[in-house]
């Protein structure tokens, strides 16, 4: 929006989003917009340019104002151009537009300024995803008046588009977990992109990584080696466009794998040594010394 304002804009409104969920933390972000201003003079005119948010995020609307103040005499302004990053788009306009390019918005009219009458022009822009993150982007202005013109295309202030906030959740692990056997860890990240990595940790040790799918979910097949209570965590590392975030710790109890078989031994059940529980050793005589066998040692059923 391009409009007259009668006072300097000191700041803007920032939005702080709080996401809730199981085992989740949010990447650091700004809770309120931070304005910034640049002031300079050229002859009898003093200019003050202000941006409502010097560190906006994609989708935010930034208001840029230029205030004209005259120390003596008067001027009649009839054209003003505002210069902005190519990744910004004009949100609206109240003044008649003379021209729009990828980096400028120009308005036309007749506006008189004097020692007792300042003038402020305001432009609203929406930040798009095409903006580089973490890089200062220049702004500026120029104008034409009845006595001449002034060009200050990179006069500032600069604006740095912030990386987007993210949130990472780690799902609880259900069922029994046995040492040496794999279990699926599942993390969900908001603010990430398909293909972004998610790292999984057992305490301070990174055990592996997964990639986000189209739904923002990453999994990893974890095989715990040690028993006891394990503290597992998912961490989303910072990317070119997104902030890092990590889940809270999830406690997982790991127990030993059962060993051995439950069946009872029946060795010697046919009395190869005459030692079976209900043996009839001697009945046939493994050494064949008489009816009961000279080597028969059992008296049962004899």
From TrEMBL:
Residues 259-284 have a biased composition (Low complexity). Residues 172-255 form the Bacterial Ig-like domain. InterPro entries: Big_3_5, Ig-like_fold. GO terms for biological process: carbohydrate metabolic process. Residues 285-296 have a biased composition (Gly residues). Residues 255-302 are annotated as: Disordered. This is Ig-like domain repeat protein. It comes from Rhodococcus spongiicola.
